[in-house]
Amino acid sequence: MNGTAHAAIGAATGFAIANSMQTTPTTTLILVSLGTVSALVPDLDIDGKLRGRITLSHTVTRTIAQIIGTMMILYSLYEGTIEEKLRGVGIGVLMIILSSYIKQKHMLTITGAGVILGGVSLQELWMILFGVYIIVASLVSHRSYTHSLIGVLFFGYIALKLEHSLSMDGVFYTCLFAYISHLIADIKLLPFNKRGIKLFLPISSKEI
Ligand SMILES: [Zn+2]
Questions:
Q1: What is the pLDDT of residues 140-193, one digit of tens each?
Q2: CA distance 98 to 104
């Protein structure tokens, strides 16, 4: 399934959870945004080799790096002391500028390193773990570990820590269900998917 469809399902997931919890308009907006982003996260592995065939366009990875940099800025403005805000914004701006200069390959790996740096600087465990997630995703092959149960567990833990940091109910469920919605939309049972996902890696590499 393509990115737009994944994003739409993620947004709907966030909206449904916000609705069921009767959140304020601001919280609803945040949950819809988090759902949209989380439903796209498993495809951060697009930089990994798709059986050596695909070479991803530079524009796509650059856009991803810049979106993550922007998210880092927004989060820093929302959380922490003035000093932490400045540091977070600085790292985010640096990521956006750097990604326009780095050519080809490894851009997502470097973005992950930037997110870890931001997490250490803001002392946010979820951000450090998300940086680790991005680095791993940038190195493994497409539709492998990020599209598996291990990926769900790892991202679910990040979502739990994010919910604690934001002190906002619904964050964990929104991120988790949006992530799972991506995996469901990618399974081979659906007629428009030529390939499935390897849900049980590393125990079994059978595509379902
Ligand atoms: Zn996918």
A1: 988 999 999 999 999 999 999 999 999 999 999 999 999 999 999 999 988 888
A2: 12
In the reported structure, the alpha carbon of residue 123 is separated from the centroid of ligand 1 by a whole-number distance in angstroms of 30
Helix axes 107-122, 82-101, angle to 10 degrees: 170
Residues 61 and 134 reside in one and the same domain: yes
The whole-number pLDDT of residue 103 equals 66
Do 74 and 132 lie in one domain? The reply is: yes
pTM for this model (two decimals) = 0.90
- Cα 14 from Cα 104, distance rounded (Å): 33
**Domain limits at 29?**
1-48+142-208
Residues 134 and 201 both lie in one domain: no
Task: Decide which of 96, 113, 139 is a domain's last residue.
Answer: 139
Please give the distance, rounded to the nearest whole angstrom, from the Cα atom of residue 31 to the centre of ligand 1.
21
Number of domains in the chain: 2
Q: pLDDT digit string (tens) for 67-91? A: 999 999 998 888 878 998 999 999 9
Domain shared by 146 and 103, yes or no = no
By the CB criterion, residues less than 5 angstroms from ion ligand 1 are 42-43, 186
Which residue among 96, 120, 139 closes a domain? 139
